[in-house]
Write the structure tokens for this entry.
Amino acid sequence: MFKTIAELAKWCSIPVLVVASMFSYFAARYEPLVDSVVCLGAIILIQRAVWSKEYSWAAGLVAIVVSFSPLPLTVKIFALMSLTCIGTCAACLGMVRPHAVEAV
């Protein structure tokens, strides 16, 4: 029962974040507040995704946090580029690392 509720909350929260982020421009002087709420919601979802070992969800939500953070555009671009580079390097390192082989 709890797993179903958690799964439903996850699938409902993503459209809420997307809709809130689309209309944040129309919030006029409340735009930084709306963007902060979107970032906070995504950070909470990142914590839940990492806790349940769904790392692809967490990676997508990190992009949402960086995109809607109150940082200048150039900082956002370089933050996304560096996160992508770190993820790629970690994946390459995991592929070339020697693994134990079972003796025959």
Q: What stands out?
A: The helical segments are 2-22, 31-51, 55-67, 73-96. Residues 2-96 form one domain. The chain has one domain: 2-96.
